[in-house]
Inverse folding.
């Protein structure tokens, strides 16, 4: 679930992205200050727009924002009062973390992609399809997990690449818009001493 807010360019609207629209046709249903965006093919909710959100609480950040449990509760009350089923659940786990490639095999339907098994927590390994030329077993890098918003606004959701499932993205310095990022292709390379699962900290993880 991704919360985004940009009052200057969009207006006083909190956008709550809950699923990947996958390019299918969408429709909107608005009741009061709440609009539900859903897929026409199956009715699945992909986003909520909360209008005049500053009447509910103040948001000072721009772009991707992170809300408190109390603010999520207020939003669910707003959904309920508008006649929708409240369904927002807060997730404060970091979406950019240190990951380690623990296994890598060539993609069977590509000459440059690899299927990587990436450890993103002490007890969690996810599959990520990557084309980075410097990807190798044992490399530690920064992983954007589902629910992340990249600096340019791209949203990370589970997906497929040439028939293989992928649950995140290993990031290059340029994709993270780090200062003095090299323009060549390749994911960020971290010291082997970095701890898997640690939240990404640009001041700690980049000395560009």
């Amino acid at each position: 679930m991704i919360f985004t807010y940009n009052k200057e360019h969009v207006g006083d609207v909190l956008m709550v992205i809950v699923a990947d629209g996958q390019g299918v046709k969408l429709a909107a249903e608005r009741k009061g200050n709440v609009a539900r965006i859903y897929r026409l093919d199956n009715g699945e909710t992909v986003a909520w727009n909360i209008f005049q959100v500053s009447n509910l609480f103040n948001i000072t950040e721009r772009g991707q924002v992170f809300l408190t449990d109390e603010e999520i509760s207020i939003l669910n009350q707003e959904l309920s009062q508008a006649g929708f089923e409240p369904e927002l659940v807060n997730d404060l786990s970091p979406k950019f973390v240190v990951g380690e490639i623990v296994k890598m095999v060539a993609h069977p339907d590509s000459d440059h992609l690899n299927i990587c098994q990436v450890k993103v927590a002490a007890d969690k390994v996810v599959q990520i399809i990557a084309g980075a030329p410097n990807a190798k077993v044992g490399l530690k890098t920064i992983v954007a997990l589902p629910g992340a918003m990249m600096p340019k606004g791209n949203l990370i959701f589970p997906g497929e690449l040439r028939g293989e499932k992928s649950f995140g993205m290993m990031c290059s310095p340029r994709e993270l818009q780090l200062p003095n990022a090299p323009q060549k292709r390749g994911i960020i390379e971290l010291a082997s001493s970095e701890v898997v699962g640690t939240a990404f900290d640009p001041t700690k993880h980049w000395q560009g």
In short: The chain has two helices and 13 strands. The first strand starts at residue 2 and ends at 5. The longest helix spans residues 69-82.
